[in-house]
Structures are given as C-alpha cells and as structure tokens.
Amino acid sequence: MAVPAQKFETSSAACDFDAGLARGPAIDLVHLARQTMGDEALQLELLGLFDKQAGLAIARLGEECGAGSSQWRVDLAHTLKGSARAVGARRVAAGAEAYEIALRDGRPDLEELAVAVAEARRVIAELLGR
Questions:
Q1: pTM higher than 0.70
Q2: Which of 75, 81, 114, 128: disulfide with 96, CB 3.0–4.6 Å?
Q3: Distances (CA, A) of 83 to 51, 78, 126, 128
Q4: Distance from C-alpha of 11 to C-alpha of 78, rounded to nearest angstrom
Q5: Closest-CA residue to 61 (of 44, 49, 41, 78)
Q6: What residues does each domain of the chain span?
C-alpha cells in the first residue's frame, strides 16, 4: 500500500542525524527521504526490510545462550545500529549502541533497545498500512 507523499517530504528545519540520536520521532522521515533522494518506493522497501531485520534481531538477542555468546551479540547489535541509522530509526540506533557497549562491559540489558525497536516497528506498520 502506498504511503501519502507528504509523509516523506523533506524539511529545511531537520536537524543533523548524528545530533541527539535518542531524540525526535521513532523514524526520521526527513533523513530517510534524503538517503533515498525522495524515492518513495525505495523508502517503503527499506522500511519493510528494516522492520523484518529489527524484529529478528531483537528475537535473537533475547534468546538464552551459553557462555561465549557475547561476540555475536555485539556484532548483531552493531549491524542493527547501522541499519537503524540508515533508515532514520534514531532511538533504535542509540539503543543498539548502548546495548553494544553494555555487552562489552559485561552488563547487557536489552530493555532500552527492545522498547525502541517496538516503537519503530509500530510506526513502520502505520506507514506501510499494516
């Protein structure tokens, strides 16, 4: 289902993506529009792919695993962080980065990231008309 064009319009008032990752909307549509040069079909495709990836990542990170499981978790959180930044999911990116750091420090807490992913996925579902 197509998303109305006004949802992807760019704005000159948009702030730099790296400033305040955890603030603003769950999905920064201005950032996404810039990344895709305004191609709405591409925006919808990327949001759908990110939705699926984020859901799978959270499910995988939430699994109980034995000792020695932290490196793949760090790698998965890092991958999710990059994907989130690409589509403008600022809170997911910030949550993934915090989780990645916490894993390296031996004190992982998935809650912040899980909440951010749930919110981003809710917004994406609305945008995709699901």
A1: yes
A2: 81
A3: 10, 9, 20, 18
A4: 29
A5: 78
A6: 5-127
